[in-house]
Amino acid sequence: MPAMSPIIEVRDLKKNYGTVEAVKGISFSIEKGQTFGFLGPNGAGKSTTIKMLTTLLAPTAGTIRIDGSDPGKDPHAVRSTLGIVFQDPSLDDDLTARENMEMHGLLYGVPRSERRRRIAELLEFVDLADRRDDYVRKFSGGMKRRLEIARGLLHRPRIIFLDEPTLGLDPQTRNLMWAYLGKLKQDDGITIFFTTHYMDEADRNADTIAVIDHGSIIASGTPEDLKRSTHKHSLEDAFLELTGRDIRDESASGNERMRMIGRARGR
Amino acid sequence: MLRTVYVMWLREVKKFLRSPSRIVAALAQPLFYLLALGYGLGGVFKAAGQGSYVQFLVPGIVGMTIVFTSIFNGMQVIWDRQFGFMKETLVAPVPRSGIMLGRTLGGATVATLQGLVVLGLTLALGFQPHTWVLVPPAIGVMFLVAAVYSALGIIVASHLSDMQGFQFVVNFLVMPMFFLSGALFPLSESPFALRAVAAFDPLSYGVDGMRILLSNISHFGETADVTVLSVVAALLLGLGSYRFAAMEA
B87, A56: Cβ pair inside 8 Å? Predict the structure, then answer.
């Protein structure tokens, strides 16, 4: 296969929080149209890396190129190339499903007629068409997730970031989502960057994988490469071999605490 | 830019119109002030030769309503940060100044509407505008006050990590600004020290601006009021845009 220039290129990327090194100088690149699985235990540095790639966090050191642009220098260009499904919900609960979609379309400058058509089509795809005028606060976790996936695809991004997108989704929806992403990959050449804790999902869908632990990338390659190099039959065993069997606790962040308070208050 | 402002504005207004209980709940405090102070102290005020206290007080109460609604609305920024919606706007390819301006104008619209509801209530309770012709420009001043405090609320909220700081803001920022503004008493008759402090409180100019138009009672003068409010609003909008540009999630 002829070498293409990578659509995402990361060199020696570092992020320190005070004296804590969350990301310790990682490098990787992703070719256009590839599905890249970014795996690692809780607290390994996945979310921090994603925040830096998506212009939400300034790196301490290192370089990032997203479709030729630097998120630090030209965030606007980077933002218009990306679709993002965050790990935490980021919908407006006080608006309806369609209003959340409309707002996204307006922010990303999708022309009105296309916006209407895409919203109808995507809500149909995630099976929320008949709930489109319901407030999001009435939605279950899985429904919110589906809506966020639909929203992330609304503006036809060149790259989609999916941070644990299938958390809380049933196998039907999960398969449907990957089938749809596969179609986008084929038709539009969309590049997919995803994280997951389901190793079978990574094995089935990723073209290449990088495993991050304690802020460093400790292995990368195709799922087959990882299994071969660790002499394991499943990616799950390979992953455990690479990252060990210790259970990682993520300290509850301020955000999580707030969400708990919010839930207690019935928001 | 315009699109961004429109989206953020529309969101605030939609949410406001969908919570009638919030609109009604926000009537209680101004109503108590009007009844207890307006009618309770009315006799003393008149005996002191200052005319009708209700005529004097209503612009102050409308100002209070606007300040509280604006600041509270600005505090929604904290919720949006905690519940993730802020990220959705921060990763969108839109200017940060547009987000700030849209949120501010949305909050200001909401607070002005709430102020109008209170003004309507005072009309039912006996308040008489000095002349109806000057009510529309008075609404313009209400909007300026609302813009100043919406922007201030957003900026303050952007510095807070959770809602626990909110009570602090109310006690140490909103209450002093309200009580020192001349909303409740004539600044012209106050000691020099109080007048000096009030001169640094944007709400003093807001209340004065409304009072001139609604009740024909002046302290700073309309030109000074509108100028100060406009300049402060512009400064806060600039500061807020800068805050949004620097915000990390």
Answer: yes
